[in-house]
Amino acid sequence: MAQIIYNVAMSLDGFISPPDESSSWIVPDRSIDFQALYTRFDVFLMGRKTYDAISAAGEHNLLREIPRDRVFVISRTLQHAEHPKITIIQDSYVALLQQWKDKGLNVWVMGGGWLAAQCLNAGLLTSIEVAVMPVVLGGGFKVLDGLARSTSLQLLDVKKLASSGIVMITYKVGAMQHDTWAIL
Prior knowledge:
Blueprint: E1 4-11, E2 15-17, H1 34-39, E3 43-47, H2 48-55, E4 71-74, E5 87-89, H3 93-102, E6 107-110, H4 113-121, E7 127-133, E8 141-142, E9 153-161, E10 166-173
Parallel strand pairs: 1-6, 1-7, 3-4, 3-6, 4-5
Antiparallel strand pairs: 2-8, 7-10, 9-10
Organism: Sarocladium strictum (Black bundle disease fungus)
Protein name: 2,5-diamino-6-ribosylamino-4(3H)-pyrimidinone 5'-phosphate reductase
Enzyme class: oxidoreductase
């Protein structure tokens, strides 16, 4: 079964990036095997700002070795000739995600709270994986920005990375139904 997963690093106060869009706040942890993480996915979809941040990692950018037809960046400003190792799309990314899902492909929606919110609004996300950093940013870009509806989540896993204090949380999207809410 195809998986459309929003996998993202988030500060404790719910931001995926500070206003200056830097990534220096993300706590490193050597126990995270990014190579194994990347092999879980057939396709990578991200916005331009996420792509810029990943590209800035230089030789540590694991996406640089992934074929062009598997890395898609949503942008109205990037030029194909200047970025031959990625596929640039401007519109219709929700329809493209649906096609990938129908084909049984596993997709990593990387960063971009607006992108993840649009995927959630369209009912395409199957799970949300959040690496909660032991950092408070106080402002910036929200983990989900522009939600049009509420969605229930089912907690699948919680893991604390002892050396860094990062908490890895995995939720299945739309898995729980709430008939009533109790007020304590």
